[in-house]
Amino acid sequence: MNDVHSKSIQTRIDWLSALAARHGEDYRSPEAMLARARYQSLHPTAIAVLKCMDGRINIPVATGTPIGILMPFRNLGGRFDLGWPHLGEVVTQYVMDRVHEGRQVLFLVSYHYSKGDHQRGCAGFAYDQQAAFDHTQVIRQQMSTIFGAGHGTVYPLVCGFETDEDALVVHGADGQLLRVADLTDCDIETLGSRLSALLPDMPSRMREDLLPLLVGNFEHVAAIRQQAQQGLRQLDVEHREWMICLGRGFDFLHTPNLALIVGPYSPNLAEPIIKAAGIIEANMASGRIPDDGFLLLSSVPYDAIGVDQARAELKACFLSEFAQAVIGAAYPALAKKMINRTAILDWQARRLSWLC
Prior knowledge:
Blueprint: H1 9-28, H2 30-42, E1 46-52, H3 59-63, E2 70-75, H4 85-100, E3 105-113, H5 129-147, E4 154-162, E5 167-171, E6 177-179, H6 185-189, H7 191-198, H8 204-229, H9 234-237, E7 243-247, E8 259-262, H10 270-286, E9 294-302, H11 307-330, H12 332-335, E10 338-346, E11 351-354
Parallel strand pairs: 1-2, 1-3, 3-4, 7-8, 7-9, 9-10
Antiparallel strand pairs: 4-5, 5-6, 10-11
Domain Carboxysome Shell Carbonic Anhydrase catalytic: 97-175
Protein name: Carboxysome Shell Carbonic Anhydrase catalytic domain-containing protein
């Protein structure tokens, strides 16, 4: 649908439901299954992304990576602490599962900013790019403490994401940078050797598997620049989110700038929910989205039927009720425009089931 942001809230929700259904069907198709298997056989490194809840940060789209390859972890401002009980357990289990498959793990520890207007940067860090970058260094050190400073199996790579052009910035050794937005066609031909110099401590297999993401990002940035020349880009770089998604399993939202996605990781879960509600209210007040309503979508994935599925249902309902109470207390007027939907996701089939 063209410019779904401007449609009525019910039309937007119907569009979202259809999008989730199509994504699940596409994911389960034989062609998609074989494509994922082929990609992972060619690029066996498991890649996860720690990123902000900002709806403009869509790494699969920005790198041209098939859906289902990159594992997302989202929170306000990309703020994470591996000492948080739930987050630490989820990340560790993810790593151990991949290690048992014989795979290395690359974590993209990201922050974001806008080169054109710092007020389009990260609200979670009060638009302070340096503070956001400094926080990624803390996460990187925590990962080194848990999984080893040699980085032979788990490599935490700090990356910036410039939202005006969806361009990655890779931070290497000794403060060196690789800015995808500055690359030329000739640079792409030597990108492998550039990565070797930039990241000498990264295992060669990981560098080879990082390369397609950077090439894909280079091509994506070129497309974004063409859109900008045609006057089609400005609305995409601004906040236009009309959904708050709470939980996990939202990779069907592969259209940028739809949702603020809050992972269930922080012990103070109310903070990112309140921040997300404030952004939704500001979007309505500025006219970037209609003020007829917004969606609160709570979702929890499960791996197996039975106990795991039943627990997912309880958790999804809890998250929904918790968020409703938080938004109602912080933004009572906005809460009157809130439409609640709760779902669980069959992770293996990417099948979304609506509970209410």
